Amino acid sequence: MGRDNRRTRRDRARQQRQHNTEPPLQQVEFPGIMGWMQRNGRILFIIGIVFMILSVGAGAFASGLGTTDIEPPEATETPEPTDPADATPTEEVINRQYASEPEMALEEGIDYHAVIRLEDGGEVRIDLLEDEAPGYVNNFVFLARNQFYDGLTFHRVLPGFVAQAGDPVGTGSGGPGYFVTPETNDIDFERGALSMAKSSLGVSGSQFFITLGPTPNLDGEFTVFGWVTEGMGVLDDVTPRNPDQPNQPQGDVIAGIDIIEVEDPESETTPEATATGEATPAGEATATETPTRTPGQ
Known about the structure:
By secondary structure, the protein is α+β, with helices and mostly antiparallel strands. 25% of the residues lie in helices and 21% in strands.
């Protein structure tokens, strides 16, 4: 009896399990797209793996391609080295201001000559009178050798009268920062005489003039320290101009003044005269913006 009951209970439990147990999840059929995906899940999985691999590879490829396509910045072009023969030399700085007139440096037994070279062509040769006006000659030689006159102009040229130069300002009011000690001699002013300009303050340290004709009215007031021996025709052709008048042309430029030393000179080109010094001690005068007077001012 007990055995039959146990068997009955087992059979009943078995029947109940068979009626209540649901089918496995994979056996449930979903409708529509979900059903298609359920049936092709393995294929979709493989496609996803392939897509992921292609995506990573494409990103890396695109990254590499981008770097390659970007052009590098252009390098700044470096000029070819200039051949020294073609290079423009650095302009030499010329000193045009000094504390006082130069110390005497003329040598005994030497006849000094000066050659004024104009930028537009032409030269004027002057025999400097070192015996008759040693101070003026020494000063002129010093400035010429230090290129003081290079690039300056004949700023005052009155035909038949004088051609004046040596002003770094170009108006007749400039100078080297000092006046020279006055000198006098007995040489008369004829055509081609070289002299230093002066003002009420003293004898200019740099401005000089050359007479273009006889000027006896200058005798005793100015001092001759040189004579033109060649090139008076060049001076006659220098551009006329008066800095005291408006709208004047550009003055003719001095390219340079060369100093030539001649040993054992036979004789000077002027009558004998004795130079005497006067008054102003060397270097004590102070230059100002006062126009420097020349004959006729």
